[in-house]
Amino acid sequence: MNPFDTKARTWDSAPGRTLRARTVAGAIRRRVPFTPGMRALEYGCGTGLLSFALQPFPGTITLADSSAEMLAVLDEKIAAAGAENMSALRLDLSADPPPAERFDLIYTLMALHHIPDTQGILRVFHAMLTEEGRLCVADLDREDGSFHSPGFSGHHGFDRTELERLCTDCGFREIAFQTVYRMTKVRDGGRRSFPLFLMTARRK
Length: 204
Hints:
There is one protein chain. The chain is an alpha/beta fold. It has a single domain, classed as Rossmann fold (3-Layer(aba) Sandwich), CATH 3.40.50. Helices cover 27% and strands 32% of the residues. It contains 5 helices and 7 strands, in the order H-E-H-E-H-E-E-H-E-H-E-E. Strands 3-2-1-4-5-7-6 form a 7-stranded mixed beta sheet. A hairpin with a 2-residue loop joins strand 6 (172-187) and strand 7. It is globular, with a radius of gyration of 16 Å. It starts with 16 loop residues before the first helix and ends with a strand.
């Protein structure tokens, strides 16, 4: 079972998650010139909080995730909202071939640090974009491992300089970072702040 399947029904009710998605959506809108015909893809979409915050602006949005239960909740939300420009897709780019469609915009929120091969997924994203297409990645700055519970096997955030180098090696340009949100968690009896960056880049 996908580890996110058991979290799907309560995902949207977690404190701060909706605000985080709306804040990141606002930052993306300030960085990306949306057009009515734009084809967008959110990878690692979960229940679609980020894409629903962006839903009126691109032409179509494909929401991709590897969790069947997350996508089941997402399908219900799309139907309830009557969001005809949104569609769900079960996809794991570490195992599945990419879709044939090419996108003008690909974006992720708190997904990249779960993917073992960072450079590999960046290369796939690059190949899935149209010429001059844009990539937006919102994720954690490098941290000491205390953000997740013990046993987490993903990345403990990212060093911005190193991530920029990987993007350049994969063929991206106009790479820029900004801090867009801060998540607070209780750790060791105190509250700790974890910065979230938005990286934007364009396909060469």
